[in-house]
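In this supplementary section we document a worked example of the pipeline. Step one takes a protein sequence of length 241 as its only input; no multiple sequence alignment statistics are reported here. Step two produces a three-dimensional model, which step three serialises into structure tokens for compact storage. The input and output of this example are shown verbatim.
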Amino acid sequence: MKKTCVITGGSSGIGLSIVKLFQQNNYQVFNLDLSPSAFGEFCQCDISDVNQVTNIIRNISQQHTLDVLISNAGIHFSATIENTTEADLDKVFNINVKGAFAAIKAVLPNMKANNKGAIILMSSDQALVAKHNSFAYNLSKTALASMAKTTALDYAAFNIRANAVCPGTIETPLYHQAIDSYCEKSGANKADIHCEEAARQPLNRLGQPEEVAELVLFLASDKAKFITGSLQVIDGGYTAQ
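The serialised model returned by step three reads:
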């Protein structure tokens, strides 16, 4: 019998790799995203809209036991606090934080009723260390790490586990978008910046979305049934420096 997984932001990057891997491992995957995807059961959804997220997950939970939630949807924003407007901060938090808040809250009644569940939040190495020009993004990813810990404690009695995955620099469309934006503003050469980013990692390369997906699959499985409230770093050794 297939297990059921709900993921937000599963149409590209790390999310798409997760959807593909979970499908290969006999999960029925519901993907909440704005952009269509050929993988998983696509549910068009604006993750920043709490009501949309709530209603879609509620409809899914009426027909399925929800085994796994992966809150993956997120956007990047590069700026110092002085260069961050209130609108910028709202946009980052509405997607990165409120989207996760809505998704977790929506799956909990089903998971509590079935006395089981795994919740995985896509945080960042920036939950552990700061980076330049990353005020709002860093703040949002730290919030997700906190959300994993508090949810783990509050719902352990229902056999619901919550963990945060903290990737370092992963080669995704979001990564390339950020590099392109930086090069456009600075006039830097993209190939040079790409090499510099790789050299900053102790393993001397960027991570790949498929590697993050493997960690997420493990955390969702019974092999990780004693892991909850943790921040699982997958960053090529970056935060160990």
